[in-house]
Amino acid sequence: MVEKAKVLVVEDDVHLLKGIQDILELDGYAVLTADNGVQGLTVLNEQPAPPDLIVSDIMMPRMDGIQFLKEVRREMRWFSIPFIFLTAKGEKSDVHRGMRLGVDDYVIKPYDPADLLVKIESRLERHRSLTELHTTGMASLKREILTILNHEFRTPLTFVVAYADMLNNPGDQKLTEAEVMSYIQGISTGADRLRNLIENFILLVELETGEAGQTYDWRKGPIGNLPALIKAARERVKELDERAHPVTVEIVEPLPFFIGDIEYVTSAIAQLLSNAAKFSDPGSPITIGAFTKADEVVVWVRDQGRGIPAAEFENIWKSFYQIDRASNEDQGAGAGLAIVKGIAELHGGRAEVESEEDKGSTFRLYFPSAEPSGV
Question: Mean of the pLDDT values across residues 339-367?
Answer without folding.
Answer: 94
